[in-house]
Write a structure and sequence with these properties.
about 675 residues, alpha/beta, Immunoglobulin-like, TIM Barrel, eight-stranded parallel beta barrel, six-stranded antiparallel β-sheet, 14 helices, disordered C terminus
């Protein structure tokens, strides 16, 4: 096998058109062997060749006889001193940290561990067994792909509606998707899948992790799997499990075809990414990749005893963002997914862990500085899950500009309100209005708040509340300022039979059902209608927070908070402990905004009435100008109610546990604005 010196950059396996350059970073290795495998069923490498050069701690070599489709792994030589943080074991074939595709997943066996399972010295022991028959293998890819006229939709944040979905679960049971494609990237290119998303009206799909991941051994031995995919093995490789063909390297092209199809339908693609930990677990975990490549470089080790790992994730380890090489790994991965795979943004799992420079969370840490300064990544959508499991890890509202956040305070406030908790209405009003208390101080806008009621890691909406409250919670979500995120399947009443932690359930418990009952069909139609209504109403997509003050000198404020009498809420009403009825009057002519072309934006005035009490409330509708009336378009008492007009001053019977929406209409749109409540008699 011919081996030339090659180049230290780029890292990974790079097809040049004539041969393949291999480069891998390891600061503490003493020798690196590249092992080539003939197939995914091979039990031993066909050849192992030492990489001949080392440049700035990068080991590299060029093999002119290797082509795309070649399977490979590495044997890393170096010290095995766990107490000092060194865990090299050349008996273990490990995956390239920059592998662009995985051709063979992990096959669990005791030899997959660097130490001897069952040894009284545990991980201080040294295992000499060869794991080549069981190790995950990377494959060299040809990145060529015809993107044609593919363009990112670049939907503005304030117009974005996110649909969180699982690549497999979304289509696994879909009867209109060809059976061989169900549960794959290719399935999302089909007319049936695209039609559901576009008719629903969402503008972006947020894919639950698709980086290739490893199942935990204890799950595999019980016939289970890590369905959510948050146990990352490779930060560059799309998961082999969602490939329709299953051929080595095919997942890359299939993923690109999926992105191209979603873009053609006007849908952005956001990846849920897990850069806080890997599948190698704690000190008793397997040697799969980074641990065997250079454990001390890639992981946060306990300073007083480097045998152990700092764990801010609850998964056994934390990546070491104090290391420039780790920061480079993450940044290279992010850029790869944007440049080569054309994705439009990222949602960062346990993002607070990324901000821990030492021990405490530092929201202005190196990772955020690098993102902020990067001309590519600073322009894509960035979403933080603003917490981790370490002390001080709950950081909702504390991320810097350019970042949006999963707003857990929105979720908690909405759930509490519709349960009827005695928490008053002040917080739910703040959340409906975009959570300015969390985001305005840092110069961010309402769309910094990613609003959600449920997500993949908890109850479904069906299992969280009763039938009637599904409509209330869905309506609240879509009609609030901020960016709504719908958890896949909630729009049609998907159930997990009460399971709130289905991470290991790759079965019908987690998959989206498509044989809908009448009630589920009604909920789907209701949700579609809500999303269409939101996208037609500029006041619900404001780019600025409400000011609650008079605008343009006309004596009309941009928002009013009303009690059932139709007048503005008093301090006494705000401070009452019970969950009182609440009216929200959003004045459309008070936007004071311009569109992308600099033209003034005008919108309808909306009235939202919320009643979390179980009894009916008679709600006085605000007095309006002449020739104007309130058009009722939504009442969650029923899946569908006919539109009906009400004159200003009329009393509306708002049933218990319901939400109603009215639009101010007139024969002539230029009619007088709504009168301020304090002017009403």
């Amino acid at each position: 096998m011919r081996v030339w010196p090659g180049q230290p950059y780029p890292l990974g396996a790079t097809w040049t058109g004539l041969g393949v350059n291999f480069a891998i970073y390891s600061a503490h290795a003493t020798r690196v062997e590249l092992c080539l495998f003939e197939s995914a069923t091979a039990t031993a490498p066909s050849a192992c060749v030492p990489l001949p050069e080392q440049t700035d701690m990068v080991w590299h070599g060029y093999l002119p006889d290797v082509r795309p489709g070649q399977l490979y792994g590495y044997r890393m030589h170096g010290p095995y001193e766990p107490a000092a943080g060194e865990r090299f074991n050349p008996n273990k074939v490990v995956v390239d940290a920059y592998a662009k595709a995985i051709a063979r997943p992990v096959r669990w066996h005791d030899s997959m561990f660097g130490y001897t399972i069952g040894s009284p010295d545990a991980d201080l022991s040294y295992d000499e067994r060869d794991n080549a028959a069981y190790a995950p293998l990377a494959v060299v890819i040809d990145p060529a792909f015809t993107w044609g006229d593919d363009r990112p939709p670049r939907t503005p944040w304030h117009k974005t509606v996110i649909y969180e979905m699982h690549v497999k679960g979304f289509t696994r049971l879909h009867p209109q998707v060809p059976e061989p494609l169900r549960g794959t990237y290719e399935a999302l290119t089909t007319e049936a899948a695209l039609e559901h998303l576009t008719r629903l009206g969402v503008t972006a799909v947020e894919l639950i992790p698709v980086h290739h991941h490893a199942y935990e051994r204890h799950l595999a031995e019980r016939g289970l799997s890590n369905y959510w995919g948050d146990n990352t093995l490779s930060f560059f490789a799309p998961d082999l499990r969602y490939s329709a063909s299953g051929e080595p390297g095919a997942a890359v092209h299939e993923f690109k075809r999926m992105v191209k199809a979603l873009h053609s339908a006007g849908l952005e693609v956001i990846l849920d990414v897990v850069y806080n930990h890997t599948a190698e677990g704690n000190h008793l975990g397997p040697t799969l990749s980074l641990r065997g490549i250079d454990n001390a470089t890639y992981y946060r080790l306990v300073p007083e005893d480097r045998r152990y790992y700092l764990d801010f994730t609850g998964c056994g380890n934390t990546l070491n963002r104090q290391s420039p090489q780790v920061l480079q790994l993450i940044m290279d991965s992010l850029r790869y997914w944007v440049l080569e795979m054309h994705v439009d943004g990222f949602r960062f799992d346990l993002a607070s862990a990324l901000a821990r420079e030492l021990y405490d969370v530092d929201r202005l840490g190196a990772f955020f500085d690098i993102i902020h300064q990067d001309p590519l990544l600073s322009q894509v959508k960035l979403i933080a899950e603003p917490w981790d499991l370490g002390q001080g890890g709950y950081q909702v509202g504390n991320f810097p500009i350019h970042w949006t956040e999963w707003n857990a305070k929105y979720r908690d406030a909405m759930r509490a309100f519709w349960r009827g908790d005695d928490r008053g209405v002040a917080e739910v009003a703040t959340r409906i209005a975009g959570s300015n208390d969390l985001y305005e101080h840092s110069g961010r806008r309402p769309y910094a708040s990613i609003n959600f009621i449920t997500a993949h890691d908890g109850f479904t909406l069906h299992d969280l509340v009763s039938y009637s409250e599904k409509h209330n919670l869905m309506a609240s979500l879509v009609l609030s300022l901020g960016v709504p995120m719908i958890s896949g399947g909630d729009e049609m009443g998907r159930t997990q039979q009460g399971n709130n932690n289905a991470y290991c359930q790759d079965n019908e418990l987690s998959w989206t059902p498509w044989d809908l009952t009448l009630a589920q069909q009604q909920l789907l139609a209701f949700t579609r209608r809500l999303v269409r209504l939101r996208r037609a109403q500029p006041v619900l997509m404001r780019r600025r927070f409400f000011q609650g003050r008079a605008i343009r000198g006309v004596g009309v404020k941009d928002i009013y908070w009303l009690d059932p009498s139709g007048r503005e809420m008093t301090d006494k009403a705000w401070n009452a402990p019970s969950a009182r009825p609440l009216g929200v009057l959003m004045v459309g002519d008070a936007l004071e905004e311009v569109d992308e072309r600099g033209r003034p934006v005008h919108g309808d005035t909306l009235l939202i009435l919320l009643n979390a009490h179980h009894l009916e409330v008679r709600f006085a509708l605000p007095t309006v100008g002449p020739h104007m009336s309130w058009l009722r378009v939504i009442d969650t008492i029923a899946p569908y109610v006919e539109e009906r007009r009400y004159v200003g001053g009329a009393t509306y019977p708002l049933q218990g546990r319901t939400l109603a929406l009215f639009v101010l209409t007139a024969e002539h749109r230029a009619a007088a604005p709504v009168l301020p409540p304090e002017a009403q008699s």
